[in-house]
Design a protein that fits this description.
Length: 163
């Protein structure tokens, strides 16, 4: 049996919400409200999508504060992935392999890598070459299949030179 959230949504529905958010051009967690308000989308999905706060709480469940303890006093670092996050990554890996095994796409693999610069108002962000504070997200897709292999919206801060 699939684990359900306190709002009655199961893990698959929560994951599907974030897939829909990404596919429909959502830029942040608050955009979940826009897709939640779409009655047609709820009819297709078969359930009412979560509110932004519910989605945020679900994402917070992947955080493990103990992994932050070994960080440096100054500067930034990337902590190890939490056990829950590793499990989510495994679901993603299995989804890609299920596609490959069932569709059997050609063996051509062209990786389309995009690193858009996204403006932010965060005070700790660096200025990019455009003269505004920004971060870079990294997106990788398999061009021949249109499969998104990586949609890393971790906010990788731009260096002062925009590199």
């Amino acid at each position: 049996m699939l684990k359900r959230s306190s709002k009655g949504l199961n893990q698959g529905q929560m994951i599907e919400t974030f897939i829909l958010l990404s596919a429909l051009g959502g830029e942040n967690i608050d955009d979940v409200q826009h897709i939640r308000d779409d009655a047609g989308l709820a009819g297709i999905a078969g359930y009412t999508l979560p509110a932004p706060e519910t989605a945020r709480q679900w994402l917070d469940s992947f955080h493990d504060e103990t992994l932050m303890l070994n960080g440096p006093i100054h500067g930034s670092f990337i902590p190890a992935e939490s056990k829950s996050l590793v499990g989510l990554k495994e679901i993603y890996r299995q989804t890609i392999w299920a596609y490959v095994n069932n569709v059997k796409p050609r063996l051509d693999v062209t990786l389309d890598v995009d690193t858009p610069i996204i403006e932010t108002l965060k005070s700790e962000a660096q200025y990019c070459y455009g003269g505004y504070k920004a971060f870079q997200a990294i997106k990788v897709s398999w061009a021949e299949t249109l499969l998104v292999l990586n949609d890393d919206d971790e906010r990788v801060e731009c260096s002062p030179l925009g590199i």
